[in-house]
Every structure is written in structure tokens, then in C-alpha cells.
Amino acid sequence: MRLDKFLKVSRLIKRRTVANEACDAGRVLVNGKPAKASVKVKIGDVIEIQFGTKTVKVEVLDLQDTTKKEEAKDLFRYL
């Protein structure tokens, strides 16, 4: 699954266009490397997102094309 789509489906970032912009600005790392929006995300990958001064680090637990709001938190685990 594409990184931008995972960020939207997991609700880490609300909109896919915002996820694209964050990737283009270099604020998203996958396994410690800057990632483009088109990077394929796999289960077990570690995603780090920089929101201003705050950094969010999560591990991918599951991949789904669509999900309900309540189930979105089951797609990742905070580190």
C-alpha cells in the first residue's frame, strides 16, 4: 500500500493531499529514511512523522484499503 494512502486510512493524517505534502517536505521517514508518498508500506515498517516540534513514531501492524474510525487505531502501534 502507498504511504500516503496508509497515512489517510490509519487517520494519522486526515487527508491524502496533506500526507503527500508532508512526504514532499521530507517530514515523513520510513525505517529511518526520508520517504516519498509512493513508497510501498509493509507490515512491520516504522513510520516517523514530524508535526512541527512533535514527532510521532508508529509501527505498521495491518494494511487495509478502507476502515472504520474505531478500527483505524488497530492498523498501527505507537512507539
Q: Report Rg.
A: 11 Å
Subunit arrangement of the protein? single chain
Q: What topology, given as strand order, has the largest sheet?
A: 2-1-3-4-5
Mass-distribution shape: globular
Instruction: Count the DSSP helices.
Output: 2
Describe this structure in words.
- The chain has 79 residues and is α+β, with helices and mostly antiparallel strands.
- The chain has helices at residues 3-9, 16-24; strands spanning 28-30, 33-34, 46-51, 54-60, 76-78.
- The chain has a five-stranded antiparallel sheet with strand order 2-1-3-4-5, with no helix packed on it.
- The longest helix is centred in the N-terminal third of the chain and has 9 residues, at 16-24.
Task: Please supply descriptive tags for the structure shown above.
79 residues; alpha+beta; five-stranded antiparallel sheet; 2 helices; 20% helix
What is the topological layout?
Elements: H1 3-9, H2 16-24, E1 28-30, E2 33-34, E3 46-51, E4 54-60, E5 76-78
Antiparallel strand pairs: 1-2, 1-3, 3-4, 4-5
Helix pairs in contact: 1-2
Short description:
This protein has 79 residues and is an alpha+beta fold.
